[in-house]
Amino acid sequence: MTVRSMYPIGLDTNQLINLLTNWKTRKLYEIQTIERRFGIKLQHTLRPDG
């Protein structure tokens, strides 16, 4: 599985890995900011209430 094929928007692989490994410590507004910045939706995989 390659991150580049999943997110063809130029999301850096290290940024995505960091996000996936540290999502539990991030506040909801931080996740929303990332969503707006990269134009992706993360709630299905990252939000504990999703």
Top keywords for this entry?
58% helix; flat; 50 residues
Brief overview:
With 50 residues, this protein is mainly α.
Major beta sheet summary = none
The dominant shape is flat
Question: DSSP helix count?
Answer: 4
Give the termini distance in whole angstroms.
23 Å
Mean pLDDT: 65
Question: What is the ordering of alpha helices and beta strands?
Answer: HHHH
State the total count of DSSP E strands: 0
Structurally, the number of domains stands at 1
| Helical content (DSSP H or I, runs of 4+) | 55-70%
Notes on the protein architecture:
The protein is mainly alpha-helical. The protein has four helices and no strands. It has helices at 3-6, 13-22, 28-38, 43-46. It is flat, with a radius of gyration of 11 Å. The model has no long low-confidence stretch (mean pLDDT 65).
Describe the SSE topology.
Blueprint: H1 3-6, H2 13-22, H3 28-38, H4 43-46
